[in-house]
Write a structure and sequence with these properties.
- The protein has 462 residues and is mainly α.
- The chain has one domain.
- The chain contains 21 helices and no strands.
- The radius of gyration is 22 Å and the shape is globular.
Length: 462
């Protein structure tokens, strides 16, 4: 079809509607319907058929089926670990150890926990926050400082070490944009993920030097030692069960997930890591970890079979919205390619917008979207199908454009008061949510400005 500005409307509708309503699912559905209207107008029958066929073909595509099941699998895994009781044992075991006796060591320990536990952002936040909080209270470090450190490391490190659901989610989005060697391209994009890099490094600087800016300074001055810690778990860890066995189950299942992904990548890639099947590798690794978690939970007696299976189903149910977001975003991405959105944007930008401005613009638009809807995953789903076609049509490397879209989503999600990770960081740290948002924002803005400058510099080298 002839290239036209109307090809932008489905994506713009999705972005604007998501920002106004904060309902990513409805925004994506609206974009899909509008895309089919533009493709098949004035035939209402063809429009309805197009909506059905585009959605159904995406849903039943064999490669996408792996994505749906691995997404549900990781929800089931953490459902078993958390609701089955072993994760509570793990947390209580670590809380009872008082290995850190100085403020600097406490802050650095939290940063290290956020870096090494890169399986899933919310799980990482829960581990870092709940294990560090008693130490911070005992030493007189503000819980707002704890919330900042866990929030600034967990989401950022999950995107920089993508052997997790985040990586597979984005890898699927990238693959569906027709990128050659999507895994290699995704790995290359990590070097350009400036906000995530700056966020992790800035958190380390704050942890090491106790650098306080903005409202954080007041909270640190008012922090008193030995404040009573409140337990994050509503039902409390079960102190009667075996701590050692429960800890072993958690560590074994999470370590198997980390180890098996690169192993299966090597197998599927005939010895070459970057040529392996990323989606299949994550799929197999998750279900191996799930099996270990189920068997381990049963062996330790933390929960019976019925409770374990119920926990797995509940965990899968809780993560189902992410699978639906991914499904709809892939559908919308395919339709925008049919409309020639990328080609139109490239033609419109050619000669009117300097190349060095493209990456900062994508980063800022992605950040605004992420801040407004409070979802980095939803932002990735909306922005990657816009950013990648621009790069491909202009004949530019896709990696920096992928990084700008993802990095902006992390920034927006990090700064947003309605982000689930921001809310969970407040909960895990035991601080008032608005206090966490206020104290974190100056640091997030600092890293965001640095990232914008980084993308402007990168753009001059394209």
């Amino acid at each position: 079809m002839e290239l036209s500005w109307t090809s932008l409307l489905p994506s713009l509708l999705a972005i604007i509607f998501a920002i106004i309503t904060r309902k990513v699912l409805l925004a994506l559905i609206g974009g899909i319907i509008l895309a089919n209207v533009l493709l098949f107008l004035p035939s209402s029958a063809n429009i309805a058929e197009g909506v059905w066929l585009s959605s159904w073909s995406t849903l039943v595509d064999p490669s996408n089926m792996l994505v749906w099941f691995f997404t549900l699998g990781i929800g089931a895994l953490f459902g078993v670990l958390e609701k089955g009781g072993t994760f509570k044992q793990f947390v209580l075991k670590l809380e009872q150890k008082q290995w850190v006796e100085s403020k600097r060591r406490a802050r650095v320990m939290t940063w290290v926990l956020g870096v090494i536990v890169f399986i899933e952002s919310n799980v990482t936040i829960m581990i870092s926050g709940t294990t560090s909080r008693p130490i911070y209270d005992r030493l007189g470090i503000s819980r707002e400082k704890l919330a900042y450190i866990v929030d600034s490391t967990c989401a950022a490190i999950c995107i920089l070490i993508p052997l997790n659901a985040w990586g597979a989610f984005n890898l699927t989005l990238i693959s569906n944009q027709g990128v050659e060697q999507p895994l290699l391209t995704f790995i290359q994009s990590l070097a350009f993920n400036f906000y995530a890099i700056f966020s992790v490094l800035l958190a380390l600087i704050v942890a090491w030097f106790d650098w306080n800016i903005g409202p954080m300074r007041k909270f640190e001055q008012n922090a008193k030692p030995n404040r009573v810690s409140q337990n994050t778990w509503s039902d409390g860890p079960n102190e009667d069960v075996s701590f050692g066995k429960g800890t072993a189950v958690v560590l074994l299942s999470l370590c198997s997930l980390v180890v098996m992904v690169p192993v299966i990548l090597l197998i599927t890639g005939n010895g070459v890591l970057v040529e392996g099947n990323g989606t299949l590798s994550v799929f197999i690794a998750i279900y191996i970890a799930l099996a270990i978690a189920i068997v381990g939970t049963l062996v330790t007696g933390s929960a019976g079979l019925v409770k374990v299976l119920k926990s797995a189903l509940l965990g899968a149910w809780n993560i189902l919205p992410l699978a639906i977001i991914l499904w709809l975003s892939i559908t919308l991405g395919g339709l925008t390619r049919d409309l020639g959105t990328g080609e139109f944007l490239a033609a419109a930008l050619d000669g009117t917008v300097s190349l060095w401005m493209l990456l900062p613009l994508i980063f800022i638009l992605s950040a605004i979207t992420g801040f407004s809807i409070g979802s980095s995953w939803g932002t990735f789903a909306i922005m990657l199908p816009l950013a990648i076609p621009i790069a491909m049509t202009l004949g530019l490397p896709a990696a920096p454009f992928i990084a700008a879209a993802i990095s902006g989503g992390i920034f927006g999600d990090h700064a947003s008061p309605i982000s689930d990770t921001t809310i969970i960081a407040s909960m895990a740290s035991g601080t008032e949510h608005i206090d966490h948002v206020r104290t974190q924002l100056p640091y997030a803005l600092l890293a965001g400005v640095a990232a914008t400058i980084g993308y402007a510099i990168t753009g001059t080298m394209l």
